[in-house]
Write a structure and sequence with these properties.
Rossmann fold; globular; 8-stranded mixed beta sheet; 2 domains; disordered N terminus; 17% strand; single chain; 15 helices
């Protein structure tokens, strides 16, 4: 397990599931790499975990002076670590900005001269920069926007889907599910007054375009990419039509694929592939892409950041929120599970197919307070077609209590997931 339950919240700080695992990492003398999109709280979390520790050397690479100094002479990292009075702990923030530092770090780790914790927001930059990701030397962690249990939303009733079970690590926050569908769950957003959330999200999107995309050497395509980003956000959770996106954004279908890869590499979208195992029917084989945060998706799609958005977008946003929560829990629990979707050419569909390696769990997502048999046709067909792999199906809905829809399909309130 990668989490510990806490009964209270120190001052105004929200506990994160990854905190106990990181504290244990430092205590045991190991090193780690914490990946996650911008503004998910990576720096704040590491600083919290390092409180009270001495002999820490910090390298915030967002600081131009520090970055330029280490770019000019990466071996300075080795020299400064060796000059420390005892084995130091190196905290390198936004490590993807100087990939060559990983080579210098290897010298120190292999010689047991230092311990290190690094953060990063772009796997693409690390790969393109030829970074030595130190296999076997760095334990990887991932930080998402706030999970439901980090917002204190989960019911005390144990989920029927034991494979995804977590507990609250904070008391309930004065921030609702509906608010999260509109504004997302980036830690900074949750703490802001509602009147300021829209401006913060718009600034986030502009910063992303300016710093991330220009850094990917796409300056000549920035206008086309900006248009693509809006279209991709609108299509979040659907099967994107590359030809249509190409026509509407003015770039080739090949460029559209490249753009999606950039979004995936910079941790802005999650790809969900179709479930194709032992298919008896013709199955759609294109991937779906979900933006990592509903608020970021809404602002990029130029949707109004107001409660009225839910009158037309509640269904898609609720589906995305549940898919994101499931994906985040898999990472939080350090599980080797895969999330898929399933849809036949005849229109039968299941929103989420969880592959645990041992069994398959089909999950339908409905933004409604009551579920009828007519709402679970896709689940029923799936359970018939994959009877040897899946014995039970579930519906995540907005009702108050679990409901048995059929002998093998149960509807679960969202906060009992």
């Amino acid at each position: 397990m990668m989490y510990t339950s806490y009964m209270h919240c120190k001052s105004d700080t929200l506990f994160r599931y990854a905190e106990s695992a990181l504290v244990r990492l430092f205590q045991e003398g190991y090193s780690g790499l914490l990946l996650g999109p911008r503004q998910t709280g990576k720096t704040t979390l590491i600083q919290s975990c390092l409180k009270g520790k001495t002999n820490i050397l910090e390298y915030p690479l967002q600081n131009p002076g520090i970055r330029l100094d280490l770019e000019a002479k990466p071996e300075r990292l080795i020299e400064q670590a060796r000059a420390a009075p005892s084995q130091p702990l190196l905290f390198i923030d936004e490590a993807q900005k100087i990939p060559i530092l990983f080579d210098a770090l290897q010298v120190l780790l292999d010689g047991k001269e230092a311990q290190a914790i690094l953060t990063g927001s772009s796997a693409r930059k690390l790969r393109r920069g030829g970074a030595n990701l130190l296999p076997g030397r760095l334990k990887r962690f991932y930080l998402d926007p706030l999970l439901w249990g980090e917002l204190g939303w989960l019911s005390k009733i144990k989920s029927s889907i034991r494979e995804l079970r977590v507990e609250n690590v904070n008391p309930p926050q004065s921030y609702s599910l509906d608010q999260s569908l509109v504004f997302g769950s980036l830690p900074g957003i949750v703490r802001l007054p509602e009147k300021d959330r829209g401006d913060f999200l718009k600034s986030y999107a502009e910063t992303y375009l300016e710093e991330e995309i220009r850094a990917e050497a796409l300056v000549r395509k920035i206008g086309s990419f900006s248009r693509f980003l809006e279209l991709a956000a609108v299509e979040s959770g659907n099967n994107p039509n590359f030809t249509k996106l190409s026509n509407e954004s003015g770039v080739s279908a090949h460029a559209i694929r490249e753009f999606y890869q950039i979004l995936e590499d910079t941790l802005i979208v999650e790809r969900v592939d179709p479930f194709l195992k032992n298919a008896r029917k013709r199955i759609l084989s294109s991937s779906r892409y979900y933006f990592f945060d509903t608020g970021v998706r809404n602002v990029l799609a130029r949707l109004p950041l107001e409660p009225r958005i839910l009158s037309v977008q509640r269904g898609p946003l609720f589906e995305q929120a549940v898919i994101l929560e499931i994906s985040r829990r898999i990472r939080t629990l350090n599980l080797n599970y895969k999330v898929h979707y399933w849809r036949t050419s005849g229109g039968a569909e299941v929103d989420c197919v969880l592959d645990t390696g041992e069994k398959i769990i089909p999950i339908e997502i409905k933004s409604c307070s009551r579920v009828d048999k007519s709402d679970v046709k896709g689940l029923h067909i799936f359970l018939q077609d994959y009877a040897s792999l899946a014995t039970k199906g579930y519906v995540i809905f907005t009702g108050q209590r679990p409901e048995k829809i059929t002998p093998n399909i149960t509807a679960i309130p969202w906060n009992e997931l």
